[in-house]
Amino acid sequence: MNKAEFDFLQNHSERFLEMAFRTDRDERLHNPDAYGKNTGDCGDSIEIFLTVKEERILTVAFVIDGCLNTRACAAMLGDLIEGGTLNRAWKITPDDIAHELETLPEESYHCAELAVGALYQALARYRTLRREPWKKNYMR
What we know:
alpha+beta; Sufe protein. Chain: A; three-stranded antiparallel beta sheet; 6 helices; 18% strand; elongated
């Protein structure tokens, strides 16, 4: 595809660009309440870290090894869940992320699936640790 056919800055929504270049959540949280990691067939990966208090997600942080589409999806996921309840987070879908980003390329939809997969892993581990807190030192 040549430059005349696709100009990254001109062909993406402002919201997509904001999420793709956002870096305020790029960190590893030490001693998070929840952690999940997901790696796609493409080789991109997302590690997500959550802090939770009274069934609300207080902090979302992540480490990305991937493309700008993956970064945009992870950042959008953070916006969608931070401050919300755990029950609401379980309802987030890749379609929600793609819809909010407005211009996620169809061939990069798997990046939204990657982000949601990492979230679901983190939420599942959080449930396990609520039942069996002694496992926290052994999960990673």
